[in-house]
Specification:
Beta-Lactamase; 2 domains; six-stranded antiparallel beta sheet; rod-shaped
Length: about 450
């Protein structure tokens, strides 16, 4: 038998558990990351809502055209730009902050805090037109909505140059309600996204480490508590032999020596196997004993067949008497060959109904089980002659008792089974009586 192969329970059960754990991890880790991602988006959305509202409050929609034309020549424009710089400085994650008017030809710059005039910025000067060919997402796909004065309530994208950006816009309206421009802010989510990814990776590594430890423990526990007892049972059963009674006794000793105490179904199987093996041994012993008794009984019947007109087999331990050859000696006329009845009751009835009073007590003492056992412990056969009175006809009979086993064959020196035979000795007894009378007369 191969041990610890890929089909072994010591391998398959831990792998099944770890596979289940990996499946759970495969489902849970993306859910955890998605939960962190949603929380991050919600967090940036709340910040962007506040920032864009402050930006809108800082700009007069009716003066947007003048801002684009005169820009820094207007003190109000300069004050607004300085305010926006201060506002951006209070939000470290803000990467870009700007006001564009979006029209069909593109985005017209109103204010761009990253224009070339500011520390070599990458933005555009006031009045510059961000053409449709240059325009990027989310404005390119939402241009009509932005021109209609609608806001872009959060758009995240991984860019080549600026990393992971979150864009939020809010429209600026004139006093008459018409669209003037759009306040836009771009947040860099690289730091927080990196933290979420790092946490997710750490969580994955921790779970993998725990899975490896659990796998090792599973290998140890499964082999000790499951496969080892099963292998011991298998090896023990493989050593069983059934040729002799000694072999069957050795089977019981091998099985009892395992002493499996796992406290689970394996222990239940072990106890069931013990019970079955014990029952099998007992049944085999009973069968062997029954075969021996049948053989002895057959020998007894063969030996007694010529001399006895009725024969009975008696199990003294169970008080059971079986008719082997039928006759009318006993009181029940319905006794037939093969019928089993109470030895004590039937022989007592026979003595009371047919044995003459002068012989009755002696007959009952003769068939008493304790007297039978005592007598057969000394002799191979016991006999008793008596006189019967059946319907007014007196007749001498003889009953003989022999053990199924001889004295030498009794391991426990106790008689358990006997054979009883009845024979007609009336002619012999009367002839002997006549001879005795003639002898006395002479």
């Amino acid at each position: 038998m191969k041990k610890h192969s890929l089909k072994s329970l010591s391998i398959r059960l831990p792998l099944l558990f770890v596979t289940s754990m990996l499946v759970i991890m495969g489902v849970m880790i993306p859910l955890v990351y998605q939960r962190f991602y949603s929380r991050m988006i919600n967090q940036y959305t709340r910040m962007a809502q506040g920032v864009t509202q402050l930006m809108v409050n800082a700009v007069d929609g009716d003066k947007v055209d003048e801002y684009m034309e005169k820009n820094f020549a207007l003190p109000e424009y300069v004050d607004t730009v300085n305010y926006l710089y201060t506002l951006r400085d209070n939000y470290p994650d803000i990467l870009y902050m700007y006001f564009y008017r979006f029209e069909k030809d593109g985005g017209h710059v109103v204010i761009d805090l990253d224009a070339d005039w500011w520390k070599d910025g990458e933005g555009y000067d006031p009045g510059y037109v961000w053409s449709l060919d240059e325009m990027e997402e989310p404005y390119k796909s939402h241009l009509e909505d932005v021109m209609a004065g609608k806001q872009i309530a959060g758009y995240s994208e991984q860019t080549k140059n600026d990393g992971y950006l979150f864009t939020y816009t809010r429209p600026v309206f004139r006093s008459d309600g018409s669209y003037a421009c759009t306040a836009c802010v771009d947040f860099s989510m690289d730091v927080l996204s990196g933290m979420d990814i790092a946490f997710t990776l750490r969580l994955s590594l921790i779970l993998i480490g725990i899975g490896i430890i659990v796998l090792i423990l599973d290998f140890y526990i499964v082999r000790k508590r499951i496969t080892k007892p099963i292998n011991e049972l298998s090896q023990c059963a493989g050593k069983f032999a059934y040729d002799t009674e000694e072999d069957r006794k050795n089977n019981l000793q091998l099985l009892d020596a395992l002493n499996i105490n796992t406290g689970d179904e394996i222990e239940d199987v072990y106890h069931v196997l013990q019970s079955v093996t014990h029952d099998s041994f007992n049944a085999s012993a009973d069968l062997s004993q029954a075969m021996t008794d049948i053989k002895n009984r057959d020998g007894m019947i063969t030996a007694m067949a010529a001399d006895y007109r009725s024969i009975y087999f008696v199990d003294l331990d169970r008080d059971e008497c079986t008719c082997v050859r039928a006759a009318a000696e006993l009181s029940d006329e319905n006794i037939w060959e093969g019928k089993t009845f109470s030895f004590r009751d039937e022989f007592r009835k026979y003595a009371e109904n047919y044995v003459s009073e002068a012989y009755r007590k002696g007959f009952l003492n003769f068939v008493d089980p304790s007297n039978i056992r005592e007598g057969l412990s000394k002799e191979e056969m016991l006999s008793y002659r008596y006189l019967t009175d059946k319907d007014g006809v007196e007749q001498y009979e003889m009953v003989r008792i022999a053990g199924v086993r001889t004295i030498a064959e009794r391991d426990d020196q106790i008689v358990h089974g006997i054979g009883i035979g009845f024979s007609d000795v009336d002619r012999q007894m009367r002839r002997k009586w006549n001879r005795t009378v003639l002898f006395l007369k002479h």
